[in-house]
Amino acid sequence: MTSHAILTDEHEALRGSVRRFVDAELRPHVDEWEDAGMFPDEVFRRCGELGFLGLHYDERWGGSGGDLAASLVFVEELGRCGCGAISMAVAVQTHMCTPALAEFGSDDLRERYLRPAIAGAKIGAIALTEPDAGSDVARITTRAVRDGDTWVLNGRKMFITNGTRAHFLTLAAQTEPGACHRGVTLFVVDTGLLGVSVSRKLDKLGMRASDTAEIALDDVRVPAANLIGPEPGQGFAQLSWQLQYERLSGAAQSLGQADEVLARTIEYAKRRRAFGRALADNQVIAHNLADAATELAAARALTYDTIWRVQHGEYPVAEISMAKKYAAQMQNRLADACLQVFGGYGYLNEEPVSRAWRDARLQRIGAGTDEIMNEIIAKRLGIRG
Ligand SMILES: Cc1cc2nc3c(=O)[nH]c(=O)nc-3n(C[C@H](O)[C@H](O)[C@H](O)COP(=O)(O)OP(=O)(O)OC[C@H]3O[C@@H](n4cnc5c(N)ncnc54)[C@H](O)[C@@H]3O)c2cc1C
Q1: Helix (H/G/I), strand (E/B), else coil: 359
Q2: 362 lines ligand 1 (CB under 6 A)
Q3: 204 pocket-lining for ligand 1 (C-beta < 6 Å)
Q4: Domain boundaries 9-123, CATH class
Q5: If you measure from the C-alpha of residue 367 to the centroid of ligand 1, how many angstroms do you get, rounded to a whole number?
Q6: Beta carbon of 30 within 6 Å of any ligand 1 atom
Q7: What is the CB-side half-sphere exposure of residue 181 using CA atoms within 13 A?
């Protein structure tokens, strides 16, 4: 189902390598990791060793110098491991906490954080959300005050994926109170600094094998050299750009996760018998799954068409928001239809379809909710000012 012109033989070869890695090194362990509420750091290191974490980054920093499509094929395939938490957490490393660092960071910052992130030696997190500011990022209150060669940070960050184990945070703080988005500044904050602490690990509905934390910053002295960009106040523009990567990776995750659960459900519908025939021999069940497959194909076409636009020099913000939103909604409808096919077994935690259903729900919230995607689309299309 990957016939879009953007995908070359090299992309398909990459897809094959990732699939082999997923089948051999992830899938056999995901139940155990889900129960433990954490997958091992070793997964990042192994992905780095295989060259998967820097597919679209410059060779100068240890990347492969490939295109955006390659990095998203990786995320899509990772989504097929049967545990959404892994593709989400690894995509934080590849598409959420590193793009702004790679694009706007100094060489010194790239050397200290991007290179080890691509190698899988350092785990990163993106710290935007706060207890009182999620969708409305411009309203963050984490404060950064300049003091000589350092910035002193105080505040709280909420819902931070990889937050209990991250070596660094790409963090948004306010450097000019009252300036709203014009005062937002991005810093790379080493979590080894005095004053950075995990206030709590959060217990979640789904994505249970990934750690999500609330993080406290109390008088944290961040070196001035760790500011991303030449001067403060550029963070909102940098984030608006970085979020496009984050959203495309969200769409790619949805495709892979949906593909996996649909394949599993088709196999079950052909095997499970009721009233003397296979479930799949009931027209209503076959048609529901045919509808799900059609929606998945539409989401994939929209996503790869949007990637094609990005790679041909466009900045298609509306289409990226559409792809992210549509793929997430498609995944939720599909996971629900699949769970129904499993009947009572679908409701058991031991059956992976229930995990797929829980994991899917986050996709409509993280990286910008459905409503925020609609706001962006409506503004870009001139539906509202
Ligand atoms: C498991 C998980 C992992 C996460 N990982 C990270 C991470 O790594 N880093 C990070 O920074 N954040 C992370 N987040 C936070 C996530 O990005 C936010 O939850 C999300 O952006 C929504 O913010 P909020 O929860 O504060 O909701 P709010 O902004 O309070 O919104 C609540 C509801 O109101 C709606 N709403 C808000 N404004 C409008 C409007 N103008 N019009 C219509 N509806 C509106 C929203 O769509 C939503 O439905 C994560 C969240 C979860 C649950």
Answers
A1: helix
A2: yes
A3: yes
A4: mainly alpha
A5: 8
A6: no
A7: 9
What's residue 166's pLDDT? Answer: 98
Active site residue 12: no
What pLDDT, in 10s, does the model give residues 35-63?
A: 999 999 999 999 999 999 999 999 999 99
Residue 4: predicted pLDDT: 60
Q: Is the pTM of this model over 0.70?
A: yes
Cα gap 246→241, rounded to integer Å: 9
Q: Which residues of the chain register pLDDT less than 50?
A: 1-3
Nearest to 354 by CA among 88, 82, 90: 82
pLDDT of residue 5: 75
Closest Cα to residue 236, out of 137, 155, 320? 137
Residue whose CA lies nearest to ligand 1 atom number 27: 134
Residues 6+ apart with CB under 8 A from 251: 299, 302, 303, 306, 320, 323, 324, 326, 327, 328
Domain pair 125-233 / 236-380, same fold: no
Decide: residue 244, CB within 10 A, 0-12 exposed, 13-18 middle, 19+ buried. Answer: buried
Looking at residue 307, what is its pLDDT? 97
For the domain spanning 236-380, the CATH number is: 1.20.140.10
- The closest residue, in CA terms, to atom 29 on ligand 1 is 135
| Measured distance CA(165)–CA(162) in Å, rounded | 6
Q: Where are the domains of the chain?
A: 9-123, 125-233, 236-380
Closest alpha carbon to 9 in 69, 93, 61: 69
As its CATH architecture, domain 125-233 has Beta Barrel (2.40)
Q: Within a 10 A sphere around the Cβ of 363, how many other Cβ atoms?
A: 28
* CA–CA gap between residue 219 and residue 211 (Å, rounded): 25
Ligand 1 pocket test: pick from 211, 246, 369 the residue with the most ligand atoms within 8 Å of its Cβ: 369
Give, for ligand 1, the residue of 97, 123, 129, 362 to mutate: max count of ligand atoms closer than 8 Å to Cβ: 129
CA distances from 39 to 26, 79, 86, 89, 117 (A): 10, 15, 8, 10, 17
